[in-house]
Amino acid sequence: MKTFWKLFRKLDKYRVKVLGNVLSNVLVALFTVVSIPTIIPFFEILFEQVDMVAQPVPFAFNLDNLAGWSKYQYSHLIIEQGQQTALLYICGLIVFIFFFKNLFRYLSLAFLVPVRNGIVRDLRQDLYQKILGLPMSYYTNERKGDLIARFSTDVQEIENSILNVIEVLVKSPLIITGCILFMLYVSPALTLFVFILILFTALIIGGISRTLKKNSAMAQAKLGGIISTVDETIGGLKIVKGFGAEKFFSRHFSSQNTAFKDLLNRILWRRDLSSPLSEFLGIATVAVLLWYGSNQVFNNQLEPSTFFAFIFAFFSVIEPAKSFAKAYYDIQKGLAAADRVDEVMTVENHIEDPVAPKPIHAFNKAIAFKNVSFRYSSYEPLVLKNISFEVPKGKVVALVGASGSGKTTIVDLISRFYDVTEGQILIDDNDIRHYLLADLRKQIAVVSQDPVVFNDTIFNNITFGKENVSQHEIEQAARIAHAHEFICATDDGYASVIGDRGVKLSGGQRQRLTLARAVLKNAPILILDEATSALDSESEKLVQDALKKMLKNRTVIIIAHRLATIQHADIIFVLKGGEIIEAGQHLELMEKNGEYRKFVKLQAF
Predict the structure, then answer these.
(1) Which of 241, 296, 491, 492 has the maximum number of C-beta atoms within 10 A of its C-beta?
(2) pTM score, two decimals?
């Protein structure tokens, strides 16, 4: 229930609307309870069992005086107006009471609508902000589809299962309490049966719902797996079709889908049992009440009209009791989804801004690695081992080595996508952990091996959140990246939408868009991670020309397998097994006849 109270505290932001809902529900409960004794005069007139009260009774707020005052007013009305007119007044009063009861019922729901939708909006916003802020290491162990499921189905389940019953949690206890107080006033003996029903119902429903939360958590996890499979299938559809793996994926998805269906059936069977079970128990108790109450009427211990009012009060308890029982089921089901969302919200983020950050407004000296070692998690081996080197401002440094040697890890550490396990990374003689993340990353532009573009316009993909940028500046950046020509050839030019992951563009065109984005950012440190690997020979030549322009007055770290990209670097570091085994310029390394020369001879570049 800890998660429930966390969620409940979010209501504080909407306290005015919540107060309106609570006040409306109080009035609903009030009019519901008031409607019960109003039927007594109706039955008394109908059965001609009116006990006239001739002596005036003063008005007072206690049950005895209120009942006496009502009987006097009622008797006075019959004497003055006659039974038929009095009956008409009573019917009008009943309509009046039920009109206001339902008016406030609607208002209670109307107040709650923006609260429920607002909390869902807040949950999604908080979750999105959390996911933006989490370190890259978190995503190495999580499935993308499962995270998407927490955004969509889990949050929606919270709205349907928990937020949907907030109104019940306020209204039902008030109605039940008011009705039971009336019933106690009328007949404590009969009311005992109601308590037995409530206790019996609570024990049975509590026993049935014990496994509901656990099963619901399993169901949400299975749904996350289904969404992950669909996402992976769509993302890799060419490979799936190319390798003829459709049947394998179909069987895999079918088994997941069927398991989810079977589990959901069990959950819904349990949940749906609450309402009919409550109703059956209610009717069984009504049968006992009718038998026991009728005996009291036959023995003149209870007036028939009062007995009918008691039965009416009891039926007024059954519906909110059923709603309360169903709400308990729904909350248990929704808490499983809330726990899954809370799992993400409570993940610790070790990549945080320092308490007392140092300013960095420009890059002036050098990037230095000092005895840096790194592992992705405590149970994995070191990826980098005691790495030390320096990149002076304005120099071009290349990192080469086989896959898995640690090249990409080095550049990821510079941007603080991860923090070092041991050692330090310094920029201008300050540990990068002493800078604000936003300030540090302003100094760095990254062009990765996989060109990341978004389902948006070419204009927005180049500016990528950069504000107050003129069309001229964007076109200039595109020209430097040799992208302007193909952009102009599209239907809408810079306003063209490029589709999901840039599907409307070729790999080379997507890469040149990311280069244009890096040019426009104009950061002093440029990281090129296999930036030309996706290009054909013609595109690579264009990009190489673009890179020559981009490299001027910048500090550049290049990861590449192609000799043309790195042979003019000021220094080349050769990595193997997470260690730097060679360092020097192209010709120096070739003369050493070491690992670098082997790469060249094997045409690994």
Answers:
(1) 296
(2) 0.70
